[in-house]
Specification:
The structure holds 2 protein chains of 2 kinds. Helices cover 69% and strands 1% of the residues of chain A. Chain A has helices at 10-19, 25-42, 49-62, 78-96, 107-127, 132-136, 144-170, 192-212, 216-235, 239-248, 253-275, 284-288, 298-314, 318-327, 330-357, 368-398, and strands spanning 102-104, 180-182. Chain B has helices at residues 16-26, 41-54, and strands spanning 3-9, 33-38, 57-64, 68-74. Classes of the chains: A mainly alpha, B alpha+beta.
């Protein structure tokens, strides 16, 4: 085995830098934040639940359900394509690092995956966005509703975590039992995964190149989706983890990684909105109001809460579900299925009923700069991130709010 | 080295492996060895960080057939 002692070549060394070990979460946060800024500069910010809803509408369309016959084909939906490419990017990342395997958990976990996905669908359609659109993009877009949605997310996460701890205590059989793993690689075996990773990546670039001639923006979304999926998989970028872990094991790495992304995105989004970068055919006001949804405040709060419940039970938010689908986690396949099947039903039939029951007012504006100016709004969001940072770091030291 | 308890987390994804691990370690005495089996790549990042924070020690780490990894952890 003299080969094992041989120093790797320069390119092999570079490859190992990316695919031998996981990246720090903050590296994922910063790079995802930069790609998000570029998505906004080119068209509009990152979102995930809308794309999954598009998949669901197309599934119903295939089954001939009349309410969905006008659904936009996924190939023409920027966010439907972005979501597909996040799955593919994560698949490529998992293959390059030989971490891909079909991992089938015990039955109870599959049920939790589906229910979690369904709850996320209801939360996202009610709150007009998920942890990406209404949090990771929404908060830096200076949306007041996004901050309210985030408070709901926190509450939902804490309640669902209490449920998981209770379930583990009272019904441990739910998460134990027969499980299966297929197609796994090891240190010596499974070189096919790396080759397939190259095929997937090169194939995607060829596709983007072909699309670029007729639809440059779609080509940009294809490349961004591939990179975002790969970055998420390599850095284990997980928004559920950011919200949940301080209350579970007390870890703060996941939270700090997400904060790093929020901070970068905040700077970029504020600049785009303030200077009206990429105004194009839309007015400056339309550019400012991008990703500012009409979910202030009960709609956002309730939507965030339900979404928080769902993502914690499933073990992945909308994007966390997508990249874990690409890595072969079958529990999250069930979550994606629950999300895409329930989302169109919720959007068309459940949300209108809830929305009618909620009190409405035109008293509040949802765009923070309308009240505080750009400087004030920027500082408010910065302050919220700082408070969160101090809390998770203090909690990590003291364990005051951790379950273990 | 005597293994006090084996925790099977094969097929489980985040957060179940870390939740089960934290609970299992809580039930052991100082110096006891816990064997953990798992398949979630996330655990490979989370577990060493958690051990570093809590003072529990990874005494052995290996990959066994079929994508399963194995950790032996000594309780602090």
């Amino acid at each position: 085995m003299a080969d094992q002692n041989k120093e790797p070549g320069i390119l092999q060394d570079l490859f190992n830098t990316f695919f031998k070990k996981h990246w720090p979460v903050w590296v994922g946060g910063v790079t995802l934040g930069l790609l998000n800024i570029l998505l906004f500069a080119v068209k509009s910010p990152w979102g995930a639940s809308g794309g999954i809803n598009n998949w669901g509408e197309n599934v119903f369309k295939i089954f001939g359900i009349s309410s969905f016959e006008n659904a936009t084909p996924t190939s023409a939906s920027l966010y439907g394509v972005l979501c597909l490419l996040i799955v593919l990017g994560s698949f490529a990342g998992a293959l390059f690092s030989k971490e891909f395997a079909l991992r089938i958990p015990p039955k109870g976990e599959l049920v939790k995956g589906f229910i979690g996905g369904g709850l996320m669908a209801i939360g996202a359609t009610l709150g007009l966005g998920c942890t990406i659109g209404s949090f990771f993009s929404g908060v830096p877009a200076l949306s007041g509703g996004a901050i309210i949605f985030t408070i709901g997310l926190f509450a939902g996460t804490i309640v669902a975590l209490k449920y998981l701890l209770w379930e583990m205590e009272k019904f441990p059989g739910f998460s134990t039992g027969k499980s299966f793993t297929f197609l796994a690689a090891s240190e010596e075996k499974g070189k096919w995964q790396i080759w397939l990773g190259w095929i997937v990546s090169i194939g995607t670039f060829i596709l983007a190149f072909r699309v670029a001639g007729t639809n440059g923006v779609l080509a940009w979304f294809i490349i961004s989706g591939l990179l975002m999926g790969l970055i998420c998989q390599r850095s284990r970028f997980c928004i559920v983890k950011a919200f949940r872990d301080p209350f579970m094991t007390g870890e703060s790495d996941g939270s700090v990684g997400v904060m790093a992304g929020l901070l970068i995105t905040l700077v970029g989004f504020t600049a785009i909105k303030y200077f009206g970068i990429g105004v194009g055919e839309s007015s400056l006001r339309a550019r400012e109001m991008t990703w500012i949804f009409g979910h202030f405040w009960l709609r956002g709060l309730l939507g965030g809460f339900i979404f928080g419940l769902g993502m914690t039970v499933a073990g992945g938010c909308a994007v966390g579900t997508l990249w874990r689908v690409g890595e072969g986690q079958v529990k999250l396949w069930m979550s994606a299925l629950g999300f895409l099947l329930i989302s169109p039903i919720s959007k068309h039939y459940i949300v209108p009923a809830i929305n009618n029951a909620l009190p409405h007012t035109m008293k509040f504006k949802n765009y923070l700069p309308d009240y505080f100016g750009y400087g004030g709004a920027f500082l408010i969001v910065l302050f919220v991130i700082l408070i969160w940072y101090v809390f998770v770091k203090w909690n990590e030291r003291t364990g005051k709010f951790s379950a273990f | 080295m005597e293994i006090k308890e084996t925790l099977d987390c094969k097929g489980l994804s985040c957060p179940m492996p870390m939740m089960k691990l934290a609970k299992a370690i809580k039930g052991l005495g100082t110096g006891d060895i816990l064997e953990m089996l798992g398949t979630d790549p996330g655990t490979k990042s989370d577990l060493p960080k958690w051990c570093e924070k809590t003072g529990n020690k990874i005494v052995e780490e290996s990959e066994i057939e079929g994508g399963v990894f194995r950790y032996l952890i000594e309780k602090k």
